[in-house]
Amino acid sequence: PSAGRELGPSTVSFAASLVVLAALAEVLGGREPSVALAAVAAATDAAAAAGDRLLADAEGRAAQFRAWFDDRPTVVLLGRGSARAAAELGALVAKEAARVPIESLESAQFRHGPLELAGPGLAAGIVATEPATEELDRGLAGELAEAGASVLVVQPGTEAVPGAETVAIGGLDRGLGPAVAAIPFQLLAWRVAVDRGLRPGMLEVATKVTTRE
Fold first, then answer.
1. Model's pTM, two decimal places?
2. Residue 132 per-residue DSSP state
3. What share of the chain has pLDDT > 70, as a percent?
4. For a Cys-Cys bond, which of 35, 66, 125, 203 suits 77, CB 3.0-4.6 Å?
5. Residues contacting residue 99 through CB under 8 Å, at least 6 positions apart
6. Exposure letters 93-121 (e unless 16+ CB within 10 A, then b)
7. 88 by DSSP, 3-state: which?
8. Between the CA of residue 192 and those of 64, 115, 127, 146, 208, what are the distances in Å?
9. Which residues pair with 125 in a beta bridge?
10. CB 129 within 8 A of CB 170
11. Which residue numbers in the chain have pLDDT < 70?
């Protein structure tokens, strides 16, 4: 309840969960709770500001991401480390809100066979926010773009990846960055859902909270 009211698929609850997990990680890493909370509060403010910048032109951004997808038959979201959270959430929301069957994979895993999907029929979203592997992910993005795929890279900085769309979110805390990195895919799901005459987040088969197997 403290996260605020959530309308549609998992957005607010996802971001709020990351804040709690970031604080827990700080404490488990040896920081005093008060110091950990202060650090996470500052990192949360930075992430919120980055999110606000992305959402300042929500309609325009949604149109940009819609053009990247362009109803291609195969869509993948890729990431490593903490970036996997954004890729997984983005795929889930696209399925829930827009009925788009998007697969989320670890970036290196994609090279082991699924790389054969590279080509004009593929839309690949790559979350390149993990510092240790950012250049590897940007390199993969360049390869996919060269093969003719439609590529969208979510990254900290503004340096272009040849042939790919890039979205710069700034240098954010590794634990909280996924909350911002997921926004492009949430906007995509909203735009596609509206285009298809769906009400984003209104589930017809499943329920928002799963209560049984």
1. 0.89
2. G
3. 92
4. 125
5. 193, 196, 198
6. bbbbbbebebebbebeebeeebeebbeee
7. helix
8. 12, 26, 20, 26, 20
9. 77, 152
10. no
11. 1-10, 201-204, 206-208
